[in-house]
Write a structure and sequence with these properties.
There is one protein chain. The chain is 65% helix and 6% strand. It has 122 residues and is mainly alpha-helical. The chain has a three-stranded antiparallel sheet. A hairpin with a 5-residue loop joins strand 2 and strand 3. The chain starts with a helix and ends with a helix. It has one domain: Multidrug-efflux Transporter Regulator, Chain: A, Domain 2 (Orthogonal Bundle).
C-alpha cells in the first residue's frame, strides 16, 4: 500500500490533470510553457507530462497575474528558482517581497493620479 502511494506521488501529471487541478485551460498551460513559465517532459508518445511541483508554480503565476505583474517579470523571477522541486515558503517570501514593493509603487502612482483628477478643474 505504501509503495502505491509513493509511486502515485512520483507520477507525473498529464496536461489535462494539471488543467483540472489548477482551474486553467489546457491552452493556458501550453502558453505558459511557451513563455518559459513552466516546463514539461515528454512521454514516449510525445505527450506532455508535468512534475507535481508545477501546480505550486501555476498557483504563484495566477496570483502574480491577478496583481497585475507582467508575465515577463513573472518569468524572470521564476527563472532563478529551480524547477525540479516545489516552490518553498522562502521562495515565495522573496518573490512576494519584490512584487509587494512594485504594488506599493503602483498604488502610490495611482493615488497621485486620482488626486490630480480631483483637483484638475477645481
Amino acid at each position: 500500500m505504501k509503495k502505491d502511494k509513493a509511486n502515485e506521488f512520483k507520477r507525473e501529471l498529464t496536461v489535462g490533470e494539471v488543467a483540472e487541478r489548477s482551474g486553467l485551460a489546457v491552452s493556458t498551460l501550453h502558453f505558459y510553457e511557451s513563455k518559459g513559465l513552466i516546463r514539461s517532459n515528454r512521454s514516449r508518445g510525445n505527450q506532455r507530462r508535468y512534475p507535481r511541483s508545477v501546480l505550486r508554480r501555476v498557483a504563484v503565476i495566477k496570483i502574480a497575474q491577478r496583481t497585475g505583474i507582467p508575465l515577463s517579470e513573472i518569468q524572470a523571477a521564476l527563472s532563478v528558482l529551480p524547477d525540479d522541486r516545489p516552490l518553498t515558503v522562502e521562495d515565495w517570501g522573496r518573490l512576494s517581497m519584490t512584487w509587494q514593493r512594485q504594488l506599493d509603487e503602483r498604488i502610490a502612482k495611482l493615488t497621485a493620479l486620482r488626486d490630480q483628477l480631483t483637483g484638475c478643474i477645481g
